[in-house]
Design goal:
Distance between the termini: 32 Å
Helix content: 10-25%
Order of helices and strands: EEEHEEE
Shape: globular
Structural class: mainly beta
Number of strands: 6
Largest sheet: 4 strands, antiparallel
Strand order of the largest sheet: 3-1-5-6
Number of helices: 1
Radius of gyration: 11 Å
């Protein structure tokens, strides 16, 4: 089994918008595509926070977006 190496994080509380995929700040996943897909569907509370996916071993930000409360 692959070790988790991608972390979803934000300075604000993360609010998942997919009903069957709760995402929490600091969530660690093994698959880059899954981590980016989940992060892309997240919002922050309060709105306007940044949601990032970090490659843990290197510290590289592989995905970043500013959260909005509008429609996804």
């Amino acid at each position: 089994m692959n070790r988790p190496v991608y972390r979803i994080e934000s300075a604000h509380r993360i609010v998942a918008t997919l009903p069957q995929a709760p995402v929490h700040n600091g969530e660690v996943l093994a698959d880059r595509g899954l981590a980016v897909s989940l992060a892309a569907k997240c919002r922050t509370d309060p709105p306007g926070g940044v949601v990032r996916v970090i490659h843990v071993p290197s510290g590289e930000v592989v995905f970043s977006k500013t959260s909005e409360w509008g429609r996804l």
